[in-house]
Amino acid sequence: MGARQLCGVVAVGLCLLMNPYGLLEQHTRAEAAPAPLAGGPAGLPGGQCPKRGGNLIIGQSGEPTSINPHRFGDQNARNIIIAIFSTLVEHDLQTYAIRPSLAQSWSISRDGLDWTFKLRANVKFHDGSDFDAEAAKASLERSMEPASGRTAPLLTRVKSLEAKDALTFVIHLSQPDRILLSTLLDVYMGPAGVTTERLGEAPMGTGPFKFVRWDRNRQVVLERHTNYWRQGLPCLDRLTFRTIPEESVRSQQLRSGQIHLSSSGLLGEMGTLATAGLVLHAPPRGFNLGLYNIHTNTRREPWRRQEVRQALSLALDREAIGRALFGFVQVLSNPMEANKRFFNPQAASYNKRDLDQARQLLAAAGFSGGVDGGDAIVCGLGFQFNIFGQLVQSQAAEAGIRLRLTILDVGTYVARTLGGRRGEYDIAVCAMVPKPDEYDLLNHPYAKLFTQTLGWIDQRREFYDLLDAARSMPGDSAYRQAITELQRIAMEGQAEIIAGGRLDPTPARAYVKNFIPHTQGNVFLEAVWLDR
Amino acid sequence: MSARFVAQRLLHGGLVLWIVATAVFFLFRVIPGDPAAMTLGFDAPPEALAALRAEMGLDKPLHVQYATWLFNLMRWDLGRSATSGNAPVAGLVFPSLWRTLELASLSMLVAISIAVPLGMLAALRVGSTVDQLARVVTTIGFSMPTYVLGIVALVVFAEMIPLLPSAGYVPPAEDLVLHIKYLILPAASVGLVMAARLARFMRAGMLDVLSQDYVRTAYAKGLPGWRVNARHALPNAILAFVTEVGVNFGLLIGGMVVIEQVFTWPGLGWLMIQSTLNRAYDVVQIAVLISAAAFVIVNLLVDLSYGVMDPRIAYE
Questions:
Q1: CA A55, chain centre distance (Å)
Q2: Which residues pair with A408 in a beta bridge?
Q3: Which side of chain B, N or C, has fewer Cβ within a 10 Å radius?
């Protein structure tokens, strides 16, 4: 830990001691919930920008790997892409309900196989050409190419696409799909007649900002799209996404005003940021920014045994983890707790630590003297993951589970969990960012990720069958039952141990107004304005 | 100085570069990491990763990948980097190299302008308070990691006394004054640490020369001290110093990784770090190769400069 980080820890500690829900919490409360406008951007009085113009400089933790809307792997890239491109539907940033965006409305056939989207008229691309059904069709086709990793696997039920007329676009499915709208949140609309590669080199969408230039290893510059379909937006003239990997330097530049907002939280710097009068924007109440998770390799001993997985989950002191991470953690063990609507209170909970029961479970699995849990790999995504990994190791040891901890750079972590050396670990400690809907909250931790190493798919086939079936269920009643049952199985199995919800606030200068953090860490800037 | 000597050194340099290129190519295939997974993200499914790997040519046998890369390299076709937004590799590496050369040159200028007078003064006043003080200062500088000095300089001169911008880069064509302002702190941080090292070298070299007979003879002839030092001692002491400067300059080109990271200076070191983290093999391979080539060239230039500085040295 560097001297600056140590100072940060001490300062936050002092703040929390003086007032357990003091300085930091007040900032988050004050900034958490601007009032939404129906169907429009949240937080703007009368839908108008109180002040126009200015260049918002955003500090990012790394150079984007790409600004191709169909092929990108990191949040730094996504923040730029969502400013350039729009989607057919979007999240309401307060409720996370899916609402119209480029699609003005939609209807579904009785059998649930044909989805007809009425597209918004007079929407222009950045070059002035019209957005129409052909463009929507081409965008879906690009999203279904095998290498479009984020969307292609979720669009396998699409049978055909049809541009019925200029503003009517139809998706024909081979079987009903409840998560189609949710998938469309990630399908970025570009013009027809361009290849995916070309779109990555010269990104052009219908979004609030248009691409100006990418100064490699330095910054990406965007400017206002004057023909943006949302009248009066965006408020800002220009966005500059600046690459500043060093947390201490990003924090220093934020304090000195050289950058106005840091797109990724600076948890190790919270002490200095809070005392420097910066605003820490928290996600809206009831939502978090993804989940801290521990993935167990159920193809290996001892993690093949359910009792050992349950023992580790019970050994975790989630409240202590929260305290160690400055309170920016929601205590939960069931991913659905982040979205109470479908939460199953009958499913097993591991929120309360129980070391005795953990030891009993280990004994029942034949490990009464403790067990060697093998290699715990931690993704080196930042300060908080090092702390999280160390806490998992020490708390597991108290129950008798011995772990060898290795913090890996992201490339190596990905290689050992997903890439060429996948499966080379016993447990993997990191965080994930599911969409805030009941399906992805279950699909993301247990099915979409790691299925190649998750031997659990063999042990609990019924989970995957039910998850697949739920996607086709027409009525809410059967669907609710399925989601409830899925939680029961997941909580019993503990193949993926959820250690808490991330609440890392986004730090910004006080004159950055109307910034609303998104639950997936996306930085939406169309309605942000500068008050100076 | 014979052309044969230069040709021989260039041939050796070529061999070194081929070994470096081969080592880097295979080293990056051995370390865990998957460019396709880095491009598509944590949650990319295996089918999507396989499709992208095939597009990148990573599904081919290693020897085929190596032969293709080497063949393209010899044709000076550096290709495009799929893991860096499909940018031309040359367009990423050469501007970064230029920025590193700029920073390294200024750092070296700072270092030399401190080290030469300080080292000479310490040698000429050996054992005096000045010498003791110089030793203390150089020991502190010698043992101070550059990044610590860099962060301290940032906090003091960009935050506490905001005289300079903290970290970043502005192209000279955009704003020359700001460009220079951004250069000052990183160049000073590297230059001061380097100065400590070079000053000690300068002092030792001067002490060695000052004890030589020809220096004593020059004094015996009644020449003034400044003339003895400037005309007889310094030119002889400087030879070893130039070698040290050359080696350090070569090391700086590939060794600015940390300082460029601290000051967000988008040079070759920064590029290597970012590309390694993103597993952009194609970029790192060329960046390391260019860095090695720069080292070879600087060393060759230093060797050639001996002949100019000391006519007694002739290369066969």
A1: 26
A2: A379
A3: C
